Every structure is written in structure tokens, then in C-alpha cells.
User: Which sequence fits this backbone?
């Protein structure tokens, strides 16, 4: 697995060396990676919901400071990671950003 700028580089190296046996799993939903997924050059990427990740961190810090009980926090906090492949490369944004929920209130508020 690679960081966001590595995937396009691996695609280029595979093309230049004639390699077709490399399965590429990238990270982050950058335009070049999504284009390469649609073209069949990258198998998939994992996209993270950075906004939710930041929001949840601040929310937990605030709750700890105001309520003082970290024991109520979940041991695992999912920031909304989505696997993007050819089946959802055109529609992943709704999966990634449409699922942001703050204490039961969907965001953006409709």
C-alpha cells in the first residue's frame, strides 16, 4: 500500500517496464488515483474522511474536558474510511461524505 502520491508513480513504472502483474492498492482519493482506478490501472484505494476524523478528535477532547470520563469513548473510532474500486469510483463521494454524523445529527443538515 502506498501514500497518496505513490500510486501514480507505481502506475508509471509498471507502464514503462511492461509489468502487468502488479496489484496496486493506494491510499487517499486523489484525482490521479481515481482516474487510474477507472482506467483499470489501480485495483483500489482507501479514502479517509479527514473532516470527520478531526471533528471526532476535537469532540472527544471537549467531552473529556467538560465531562471528565474517557472511559465512555469507544476503543475504535472509525473516521469513515471507504474502499474505492471500479464498482464505486464514480459514486464514492456520497459514501465518504454523506455518512458524516455528529451525535445523531446528519451533516450537512438537510
Assistant:
Amino acid at each position: 500500500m502506498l501514500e497518496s502520491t505513490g500510486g501514480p508513480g507505481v502506475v508509471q513504472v509498471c507502464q514503462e517496464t511492461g509489468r502487468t502483474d502488479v496489484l496496486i492498492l493506494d491510499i487517499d482519493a486523489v484525482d490521479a488515483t481515481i482516474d487510474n482506478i477507472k482506467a483499470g490501472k489501480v485495483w483500489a484505494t482507501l479514502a479517509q474522511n479527514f473532516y470527520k476524523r478531526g471533528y471526532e478528535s476535537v469532540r472527544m477532547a471537549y467531552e473529556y474536558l467538560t465531562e471528565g470520563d474517557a472511559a465512555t469513548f469507544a476503543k475504535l473510532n472509525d473516521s469513515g474510511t471507504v474502499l474505492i474500486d471500479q464498482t464505486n469510483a464514480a459514486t464514492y463521494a456520497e459514501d465518504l461524505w454523506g455518512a458524516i454524523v455528529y451525535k445523531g445529527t446528519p451533516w450537512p443538515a438537510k
